[in-house]
User: Fold this.
Amino acid sequence: PLMGVHVIKLVPKTESATKTVEKGLKIIAVIKDSPAAKAGIVRGDMLLKIGEVDLITSDDLFAAVKRYQGQSVPVEFEHEGAGAVAQVALN
Assistant:
């Protein structure tokens, strides 16, 4: 199954950092003509949720994409600091 993104997990440098830094996965690359690219998701966005799956680790992303393979699902993400939702058709 393919969504067409490469992600990293941002980890706070100190324990006093806010929990918001830990939520979501930062997109470091979007594959051209991929489902994510067609949905308007771009490098630098933060993936927060696919369908009903909260994205905390990259394993969550793989599990969600596998779970919803072949379906069009809502993907919650943060773009330029604002929340957004896009329907993504997962291959």
Summary: The chain has a mean pLDDT of 88. Helices lie at 35-38, 58-67. Residues 39 and 88 are 6 Å apart (CA to CA).
